[in-house]
Structures are given as C-alpha cells and as structure tokens.
Design a protein that fits this description.
The structure holds two protein chains of two kinds.
Chain A: H1 2-14, H2 42-45, H3 52-64, H4 78-90, H5 101-114, H6 122-131, H7 137-150, H8 153-171, H9 173-176, H10 182-193, H11 206-225, H12 234-244, E1 248-250, E2 253-255, H13 267-278, H14 285-288, H15 291-308, H16 312-319, H17 323-326, H18 330-338, H19 349-360, H20 364-376, H21 385-388, H22 394-406, H23 414-432, E3 436-437, E4 445-446, H24 451-464, H25 473-483, E5 498-501, H26 509-515, H27 522-529, H28 531-551, H29 559-563, H30 583-586, E6 591-594
Antiparallel strand pairs in A: 1-2, 3-4, 5-6
Helix pairs in contact in A: 3-5, 3-8, 3-19, 3-22, 4-5, 5-10, 6-7, 8-12, 10-11, 15-20, 16-20, 18-19, 19-20, 24-27, 25-26, 27-28
Chain B: E1 4-11, H1 17-26, E2 38-47, E3 50-59, H2 66-73, E4 78-84, H3 88-105, E5 110-116, H4 130-139, E6 144-147, H5 156-168, H6 170-185
Parallel strand pairs in B: 1-3, 1-4, 4-5, 5-6
Antiparallel strand pairs in B: 2-3
Classes of the chains: A mainly alpha, B alpha/beta.
Chain lengths: ~600, ~190
C-alpha cells in the first residue's frame, strides 16, 4: 500500500498538482461532526436541521429499541452516558456500536431535559394540560394538530421522530415482550418533555406530582394517537417515514415511505372512520392487510418506480451482509418479505434495512425505495434510469446530503475496514494497468478500456464498495482549486466515480469538500444495478458536467470519452469564473459527475 | 418520633421497587408493568406490642424525577435502596448515583441495601453476586444488606423488618457515627 501511495504521489507531482491527502485537513474520514450542544435552546442546536449525531441516536433507537426490554425506563450506564454526551457536545465521531440502547435512550432524555424551557415551552405545555381534559376527541385532535403545527420546523421534525420511535416501541411491546407500553413510556419520558411540572424553584410540592401524572397522560395520549390521527401533519409523517424507512399508516391509510396516501374524496369523514376502524389493528398490518390496500400499494409501487427508478436491490443485498442485519435472524424475514414488496408498519425489519443503508452511507433514496422496490424493481429497472437524476428536487438533494452527513460516523465499522483493504488492493492493481494521457482534457488520464470491460469492472467494484472509505474526492478538488486556479488534474479510477450532485454553492468553502462526499450519488447507484442503464446515465451526466466545465473555463473532456470513465473532474467552483448561483439557478438541477480520484494513505 | 415510621424505596428504574412494595403489603406478586411517578401507602404494624403506623413511599427510578423524589426524602427515616441482580448498571448506579444523592440530601441517613430479583440468578449468567453486594454495602455504609425476590416472596418481609429495626433503633446511628469521625481524623 505504501508503494502504491508513493507512486501516486509521484505521478501527481509530475502534473504539477498538489494531490496529497495530507494537505487535506479532514482526511478520509471527517473528524468533526455537527455538535449537539446540551443545555442550549433548540433553535441553536438545530440551526439548519436536526444535527446528524442526534438523528443517528434516534434512528438507532428506532431500530433497536423495540426489541429490547425497558428502553427509556431502565437506566443507562452513567460513565458511558458522560462519554457519549461529551462526544456529542464536542462533535467527535462516535461509534454507536459501543453504546447500549439504554445509554443512548438516557442521553436522549438528558438532551431533552437540558433544553431550556423544554421542547414545547411553557405556554404550550400548559395548553397541552388543558387539552388532555377535553372530551370531544375530534376537537382534541384538531387542537393538538394546531399546536404542533405552530411549533418551529425543526421542533416538529424532532417530535415526529421521537414520537414515531415511541410509537414503534409501544406497538411492539406486547409482541417482543419489552413491557414498554405507551403508559410506561409516557411515565418514563414525560418529565423530559414537560419541564413545567415542577413549579418554580427546587422545592417540589405534592401538586407537582399531580402535574407529572397529567404530563404522563399527555405523553401517553400523543404516543397512542401518533398514527391514528393526523397529529403531526403530512409533511412530518413523510419526513419520519423517509428518515426511518418505516412504512407508516396514518388514519388507516398507507404511507409508503415518503409517500402520503392519495387524498380520499371526503378526507375528514373518511379519516375518522379509518381512524376508528383501524386504530387498534395497525400494529399487525401485514397480517390484516386487505386486498384493496395491496393493490393500491402495488399501484404506488409502479408509480414510484417510474418516478424514482428504484434501484435499491443491489444495495439491499449488500446491506444484508452488514453486521446490523446479521443479528437476530432478520435476514430471512427480510427476504421473505421481499416477495410481498411491502412491509407492515412497525414490523421492524424495514428499519434494519434502513440503518444498514445508512451504514453504507448511501443517502436517502435507496432507503426510501427499498420498501417498495423489494419485489418489483429487480425485473424492470433499466428503463427509467437515465431520467431519474433530473427528478430530484433541491430539497431532496439537501436531505440526501444532510442525511449522508449524519450517518458518517457509522462508517467506523470493522467490516468497512475489511472492504477498504480489499478495495485498496484492487485499486493498486488498477494503477499498474497501462494508462494513456488524454490530450484533449488537459492532462487528465484516460483508461483505454472497452466499454464492456469498464462496465464489468465498474459493476463488480461498485458492488463491493462501501462508500464510507472513499470520502474526500471533492474535498481534494476544492483544495486544489483554492491553491491554484488552474485546471486541476486527477487520475480517475473507474470505481471512484462519484456523481456529485451540486447543491448549495453558498456553503462554507472548506467544509464544502469534506462534507459533500459522504454519500453515493445516484449515478453510481444506478450503475451498480444495471449495465445498460449505467452507461446511459454516465453519458448523460458527464456530458452535462462537461458543459458546465466549459462554462467555468476549466479543463474539459470530450463527452464521449468522459462516458467511459475518463478523468473528468468537475469543480463545483464558486470562486473561479462562475458566480455563486442563486437558488433559482440551482433549481435547474445541474448534476455534476466528479470522476475524481484521491489518493489516500 | 411521632410514632410514624417512614420508609422510602429508591433505586434505578426497573429494579422492582413497586413490585417489592406490593409483595410486602399484599403478600403476593403483582406482574403489572408500569413506571411509578410517586406513590405512598400507609399501613400499621405492631412493634413491641404497640401498634405503629408505617408510611411506605414509592418513588420513580428515572432520574428525570429527581426533583419529585426529593419530596419523599424530607421526612424519611429509612431508605431502602434497591438494585436489580440481573442489571449490573443498576448495581453500579447505587454507588455512582444513589448513595451520593442520599448522602447529599440526608447525611447520616439509614440505608438498607436490597438486591431485588434474586430469582433471576438461576436464569441469567453474570448476575451481581452476593459478595459484591456485601462489598457495596460496606462501601456505601449501608446498615444492612438483603437479597430478595418479589416473585417468590423471598426475603421481602426481612427487608422491611430490617428497615423498621434500623428506624427505631438509635443504636445503628451511634454505631456509624464514631466510625466516620475516626476516618476523618485519620
């Protein structure tokens, strides 16, 4: 490996580029994450969005807590809690595997407890206390919905994640024998949410005990009503389904991942009927799933396939080899459910896929798609590939990036390291292969390989690659650019191709590079599933990227060569030549393929 | 002393405090599973032929409730500090958290250390052993140590008997005080 690195550096030097990984501050792994500060107002913690580590905490609970006894009730290890809190506050990387679910639950409660004024705030807490005494159920629901809708965006998202998790835990309490019913959960978490329970000062009184009991009732009510009525609003449910990868049913309808059910003709009335009818059933959905729902689901499957060209299967295969899935024989379950192509709410196997996907750092979209694509996408996935990239909206893109950022810490898995060594071996083999300089692209290198060879290689390698370890390509190009405004030249490796979906150009300069790399681009995923599709996509995307390069007066490759994995390096430059784009400009969804290669030591 | 003996049961969440109280006052095992916020029971017992009232206070183990728990600390005579045999974390928290909390709010309080769920020893490996419990008892200067099982109604009575004895015998207080002073001088 060292000889390979040395060779790499030598070559890089001949091109007059500073292509060293040591010059890149963040290295292969990002060393800093978003900080999750304790004891500061929520809007400071969630400046843009829920911070990644916090999201990972919740996701881990969402995945594992339903199987474990007394999560949220049983205490966490005090020492481990301190450690985890410290890590969160300083933004250090965390290996979640080292912390038990109990510790994480305790830390999460601590985080909520430390928020000044509480998640809700004093006024809203009091309103909740009033609402809980209401007798008219529908009015009560409306009122709760109004309250939640009045909260800031990040609070809503945080709440929907938390309550969704509570809901999963309570829905499975009986089956998994965890004992965490909604009541037990309510008692355990209520004081973390309701800070006004103890009246001013430290001297608690007997009335406060009563307030605590009311708060418990509020929590219990919210947990039970999470999916039976529209408490959190459509957007939030979609967000929840998207992030956790769970299939969720609200008001007796389906939400397939991030799909809200088609609005029924008479929404209000029907929702009520459904709410009453299915409320108690919804934990055992798969068993009770009716024919109608199934067909509706299949329709949705088709629709979504055409929309997003579900390509998750190969990734799912990969995921099943991850340690996260290996546990408790879930693999079989997952396989069997594949045939159905849908997964009942809270059956939990879906969430496993979810987290392991996040382990793979593939971003949102596979995760979203797995639930539906399981059965259907395998057969017909080539047709829509090339068009799919365009359909991502900017918001989704942002979500992808944020999500990817949030899951980086999970890349510290032994398995990843195993794969990394394997990859390094392949990489060095590739470098030994003859390479030809591409005159037209200003020194970039091109591999003289047949299309078929490349595709075989690409597919073989992509299957194996877990993106966590190839972080850094963009960061490199950024740094190269900042050092000298010359066309930067990178060797490209057929498998280090990462389609970089250009987003917010207003991001902070340095961070930009290190942050944007932690997810697999769509193009890459596409190519891993179907050869034909992958080539179409590549051509498509790289030609687009080339046009962009011309705009920015950077070195450009001929489109056709670029299609064949030549080193086309796109710098999403904001400083050189190209003015920072506005949001509207970004909506044109320029997608850049960075075929960069970054040597790592 | 007004003749009322106040006993407060504390310990981590899910250690079986409520179950133990139920087992003591109803003489049967109650398998219902829910967290306690704050509860108190009153019962009368006979000590030396005289009836005395006893107030048992049940608290929440979750640390969120620490402000409410203080309510039960004020007029308490004896604490029954529980840890669960099958949960090592709860055992460690006795030392790290509970003993400190009790000492801080009520120095020189009388503590009965109770190891609950002792029936689970047969089922799980790696349970907290009796000798570890005894060592912990010395470390936190508890007055007594009992292992009990609410499920089998084993030793539950002894826990509360010892608590009552600790409450009405000033003898225990005297015994611990000089020891502390010696330590301070040394």
């Amino acid at each position: 490996m060292s000889s390979w690195a040395a060779r790499m550096h030598r070559r890089a030097a001949t091109f007059g580029n500073v292509v060293t990984s040591c010059g890149h501050p963040s290295g292969p792994y990002p060393r800093r994450l978003d900080k999750v500060k304790f004891g500061v107002p929520l809007d400071e913690v969630c400046k843009n969005d829920i911070p990644g580590p916090l999201l990972v905490l919740i996701l881990k609970l969402n995945k594992e807590a339903p199987y474990r006894k007394d999560v949220f009730r049983a205490p966490g290890n005090q020492g481990a809690m301190k450690k985890l809190t410290h890590f969160l506050q300083t933004g250090r990387l965390i290996n979640m595997d080292n912390f038990s679910v109990y510790t994480i639950a305790s830390v999460l409660k601590k985080f909520l407890r430390k928020i000044p004024g509480g998640v809700f705030g004093k006024d809203i807490e009091n309103r909740f206390f009033e609402i809980i005494t209401m007798t008219d159920i529908q009015q009560q629901r409306d009122e709760i919905h109004r309250i939640i809708a009045s909260l800031p965006d990040y609070t809503q998202k945080l709440l929907v994640l938390l309550f969704g998790t509570f809901r999963v835990i309570s829905a499975n309490s009986e089956r998994a024998g965890t004992g965490m019913t909604s009541e037990a959960l309510g008692v355990s978490v209520a004081p973390s949410f309701f800070h006004t329970c103890v009246s001013d000062g430290k001297n608690a009184k007997m009335e406060d005990v009563m307030r605590f009991k009311v708060a418990t009732r509020v929590m219990k009510h919210l947990i039970e009503e999470f999916a039976t009525s529209d408490l959190f609003g459509r957007e939030n449910y979609e967000f929840y389904a998207r992030v956790t990868g769970r299939v969720l049913r609200v008001q007796g309808e389906w939400i397939c991942s991030f799909q809200y059910p088609p609005a029924p003709a008479s929404e209000g009335g029907k929702a009520q009927v459904f709410g009453n009818q299915f409320g108690p059933l919804d934990q055992y959905l798969l068993g009770f799933s009716m024919e109608v729902e199934k067909t509706w689901l299949q329709c949705e499957c088709d629709r979504w396939r055409s929309k997003y060209s579900l390509e998750a299967m190969s990734q799912v295969d990969e995921c099943q080899s991850t340690p996260a899935l290996a546990e408790s024989g879930l693999t079989n379950q997952a396989v069997s459910s594949n045939s159905l192509g849908m997964i009942a709410e809270h059956t939990l196997l879906e969430s496993c896929t979810r987290l392991s996907i996040s382990l793979e750092q593939n971003g949102f979209f596979q995760g979203n798609n797995t639930s539906r694509s399981s059965s259907s996408s395998r057969s017909s996935k080539t047709s829509h590939n090339h068009s799919a990239g365009k359909r991502m909206t900017l918001d989704e893109l942002r979500d992808v990036n944020r999500y990817a950022e949030s899951t980086r810490s999970l890349s510290y898995l032994p398995l990843v390291h195993e794969r990394q060594t394997e990859r390094m071996r392949t990489r060095s083999q590739w470098f030994l292969a003859p390479s030809v300089e591409c005159s037209s692209c200003g020194g970039s290198l091109d591999i003289p390989l047949d299309e078929t060879d490349v595709s075989v290689l690409t597919n073989a390698l992509l299957r194996r690659s877990s993106s966590g370890t190839i972080v850094g390509g963009m960061g490199l190009s950024m740094s190269a650019e900042s050092v000298q405004k010359r066309p930067s030249i990178h060797r490209s490796n057929s498998r280090d191709k990462r389609s970089y979906l250009s987003r917010s150009t207003s991001r902070r300069g340095k961070v930009n590079g290190s942050r944007s790399n932690s997810f697999k681009g769509r193009g890459e995923r596409k190519s891993s599933t179907s050869k034909q599709g992958s080539f179409k996509l590549k051509k498509n995307m790289s030609s687009r990227s080339c046009s962009f390069k011309k705009k920015t007066e950077l070195c450009s490759c001929p489109p056709i060569e670029a299609a064949d994995n030549c080193a086309s390096n796109v710098i999403a430059s904001t400083s050189s030549g190209c003015k920072p784009k506005t949001d509207t400009a970004k909506k044109t969804e320029t997608i850049h393929v960075t075929l960069t290669y970054k040597p790592r030591i | 002393m007004d003749g009322i003996i106040r006993i407060t049961v504390v310990g981590d969440g899910n250690t079986g405090k409520t179950c133990m109280l139920y087992a003591y006052k109803d003489k049967k095992y109650n398998d219902h599973h829910s967290s306690t916020v704050f509860d108190s029971y009153s019962m009368s017992i006979e000590i030396d032929g005289k009836p005395r009232r006893m107030i048992l206070t049940d608290t929440a183990g979750q640390e969120e409730y620490d402000r409410i728990r203080i309510l039960a600390y004020k007029e308490c005579d004896v604490f029954v500090l529980c840890y669960s045999v099958d949960c090592r974390i709860s055992f460690l928290n006795v030392r790290n958290k509970w003993a400190r909390e009790l000492m801080k709010i009520k120095p020189n309080c009388r503590i009965i250390l109770a190891a609950t769920k002792s029936d689970l020893r047969k089922i799980y490996n790696g349970c907290v052993s009796t000798s570890e419990g005894l060592r912990l008892k010395k470390e936190i200067r508890a007055n007594d140590f009992v292992e009990c099982s609410s499920k089998l109604l084993l030793n539950v009575d002894i826990v509360f008997q010892k608590a009552v004895i600790a409450a009405i015998h000033p003898h225990f207080v005297k015994k611990t005080k000089p020891k502390k002073e010696e330590c301070a001088i040394l």
